[in-house]
Amino acid sequence: MKTLLINDKNIFKQLKKQKIKYDIITDIDNSKLEKIIGILTVKKNYKKIQNIIPKLKNLKVVGITGCSLSSLNLDYLFKNNIYVINTSNIYAKSCSEFLLMLCILGIRRASLSHDVMKKGIWGIQKFNGSNGKREPVDKSFYSSTIGILGFGCMTSEFLKLLKPFNNTIKLYSENTNQKQLNNYHNNIKLTNSENTLNSDIVIINRGLSSKTKHSFGKNEINKLKPGTILINISRGPIIDNQYLYQRLLKNDIFACLDVFDKEPIDKDFKFSKLPNVFLTSHLAGSSKQIEKDSYMGICQNVLDFLNNGCLSNIVSKKRYENSHVQNIS
Hints:
A 7-stranded parallel β-sheet has the order 8-7-6-9-10-11-12. The longest helix has 21 residues, at 288-308. By secondary structure, it is α/β, with parallel strands linked by helices. The protein starts with a strand and ends in a 7-residue tail after the last helix. It has helices spanning 9-16, 43-46, 74-79, 88-107, 110-117, 153-161, 178-182, 193-197, 218-223, 241-248, 288-308, 317-322, and strands spanning 3-6, 23-25, 36-41, 61-64, 83-85, 145-149, 168-172, 188-190, 201-204, 229-232, 254-257, 277-279. Helices cover 32% and strands 15% of the residues.
C-alpha cells in the first residue's frame, strides 16, 4: 500500500476522519521509505524530515500548511518534479482583511490619534511630531492611491475587497498581466516599480527567499514620497530595516509592520520608540479558525492531487521564481 508521512498531530487527526486508501505513518520507518508518495507537514516540523526526502524515490508531493516556503528545499523538489502544495489560499482571506484594516488605520492616522488621546490630548499627532491640534487628515481611504509590490493569493483577495472603493491601484509584478488584473478591479494598472512606489499607500506582498531578502532597500525606501503609508504583512526580512529606520526618523512617512526580522521582538526594539509606526505581532493570518481550516485544506488539496490529479494551490517553479525576483527597481 502507498504511504503518506504525517509529522503533525493536527493534520493526522484530520486525515483519520477521512476514508483514504493510503497507509499513514507518523515516524520514519526505513522499511517503508520506498512506499512514501506524499508528505504532509507544518513549517515548524519540516526540519525533522527534510534530510530523508532525497531517500524517498517515489515521493510525488509535499504539502505544508501556511504560506511560507523559505524552509523548504525547493531547488531539490522542483528539480525532481515533486509537487509542492501550501495553504496560501486559506490564509489569503484573513490576511487581506487585516491588510484593509491597516490601510484605513494608516491613511486616517487612527493610531496617532489614539496615542495622544491616551495622554489626555484631543486631536492627532502629525508626522512632524506636533500634537494636540484637531486637524483633518489629508485624504480618506477611498480616494487614496494604492501601490502593491507582488501578486499572489493575498493580493487577489485584497483586490476583491477594494471593489467598493474608488482607489487608483498600481501593481508591480512579473507574475500576472493586465487582462488578468482587469477581472479583479476596473481601476488597476500593471506598471513599473518606480510608479508603484509613488503612491499614498505602498504594500509589500512578496515571498521571502535568499533573493528577496532586503530587496526593499535604500533605493526603494528613498523613493517613498512624504506622507506615504508603508505596510508589510508578508515577511520582515524583505525590508532592509536599517534604511527604513533612518527614513522613519525623518518623521515624514508612516509604517504599519506586522512581521519582523526576529520574532518575537525584544523590549528594546528600536522601532517601538517611534511615533510614526504601528506594530502588530504577526496577526494577519493568526487565528484558531485559520489554523483549523489550514489543516483541513492541506489534507484536501494533497488527496485531490493524489486521487484525481487536481493541481489546486500548487506552487509551481515558474510562479515561485517570478514572485521572488531579486530586485524591485
